[in-house]
Prior knowledge:
By secondary structure, this protein is an alpha/beta fold.
Amino acid sequence: MISIITAIYNLKDMNRLFYECLKKNTYHPFELIIIDNGSTDGSLEYFQSKTDVKVIKNDGNYSYPYCQNAGIKNAKFDTYVFMNNDIIVSEHWDKHALSIMQENNLDVASCVATDRVENEDATYLSRKRWKHIRIPLLTIFGPRYWNLKLMTKLMYGDWKLFNEKRFAQFGSSVCLGISGSTVIVTKKGIDLIGLWDERLQAADFDIFMRTKKRSIENGDIKPAQLILGVYVHHFCRLTTKQKYPPFKDNSKLINIEDKWDVDEAKKLIVNSGLKL
């Protein structure tokens, strides 16, 4: 059983599609914990109307890692899935991902996504294809429910078949890396590397760095891995035109370079596909 933790600010139609796909395609029992950062478009009320959703209402807009830690504190299961709300999942994504994590003895992993797949060339092509679909349709129609579904259809054709072919191709293969749109961490993983660093908005990058460093120094955890056969669609930059309220915890946020020495960071991210 899993605890899915997702922070939101508006985008009601996207939130609806996200929730519907989770309900349809998730195999294991799960709880969904929504951290609302002051939505004004009905998103808060939408999730509050769902009896199977736990809603935490913040008193303003807080940074990504702050919200993830708030979710952990309210979670009842021992596997945490930190998800963006602008994604849709594939059928039985969780069953496959957890099985592959167990097979590879992983405590931190990510599903691959539109903006992060098996290698740089494939990632470039995926991002390019999605950009050509996303930009004109979002510009004309915006993030409406029917338009989000249309964009996905244009990207993949048959979503179920696309994912079946991908799983058949990659199976339980993994590679070094992390994708911030879906990060899966076991309780053991949290116990070893700690909570999200609330000083860093780029906290998924930091999670990777901490797993890699600890794997070298202690050997009790493997570096974060990408699960190549399990794919989620990430709408990518769906919210760039939204005007967000400033983070209430903005005064304590720092840059990644303020925490990690550049030379050390470069050594840790070798072959991970990550860049400073």
